[in-house]
Write a structure and sequence with these properties.
Blueprint: H1 3-6, H2 15-39, H3 46-49, H4 52-55, H5 59-63, H6 67-70, H7 77-84, H8 92-113, H9 125-157, H10 168-189
Helix pairs in contact: 2-7, 2-9, 7-8, 8-9, 9-10
Length: about 190
């Protein structure tokens, strides 16, 4: 007997929904890791120095698996997006929606599938999860594009440009980052 049919509590959620839910969580964690990683390099900025969650965070601390260093990584995805999203030229509206959807998936997905007072919060959970996955993967690609630009700039600054190779994937990710930045700038100019 498999887990989806053995419990009456999970019988109403099909296997595809569980698979999409797992993939959505995985993609959200990748985005959060990437964004947090970049933020760990931005703790010298005045707005980061004012926020105790980032004041003592270093890139090495961020990557460390040591329990003492884990305590330094206490900011939420929403806090990271709020503090660094504009500096990274990412759309604040898009980041806010991503955080809202991610929080719904992490904290309220089950509740939103259950009729509360006759209302189901997510009428088509698989479409919602697919849309979230598409959006977060687009933002993951944008983060990779930004990182590609940052690595190239660092190599140029250190006169080590010959040591870096820009791949076709880097170029595609840069295009995605550029399209997000262009949309953000267009929205801010109107």
């Amino acid at each position: 007997m498999n887990a989806t049919t053995s419990s009456p509590e999970v019988m109403h959620i099909d296997e595809e929904t569980f698979l999409l839910l797992g993939l959505a969580l995985y993609c959200a964690q990748k985005f959060e890791f990437g964004l947090y990683g970049i933020a760990s390099h931005m703790t010298h900025l005045p707005e980061a120095k004012k926020d105790k969650r980032f004041a003592n965070l270093t890139p090495n601390d961020f990557l460390s698996s040591h329990p003492e260093k884990k305590v330094l990584r206490k900011a939420t995805l929403g806090q990271i997006c709020t503090l660094f999203g504009e500096r990274l030229l990412l759309s604040s509206e898009e980041l806010e929606q991503l955080v809202t959807d991610r929080n719904l998936i992490v904290h309220d997905f089950w509740r939103e599938l259950r009729p509360m007072r006759g209302v189901v919060g997510i009428p088509n959970p698989n479409d919602f999860l697919r849309g979230f996955i598409t959006n977060v993967e687009r933002l993951n690609a944008a983060i990779k594009g930004l990182l590609s630009y940052l690595m190239e700039a660092a190599a140029q600054k250190e006169d080590r440009s010959t040591e870096i190779a820009i791949t076709n994937a880097d170029l595609e990710n840069r295009k995605i980052f550029e399209s997000i930045v262009a949309a953000r700038l267009a929205n801010h100019s109107t």
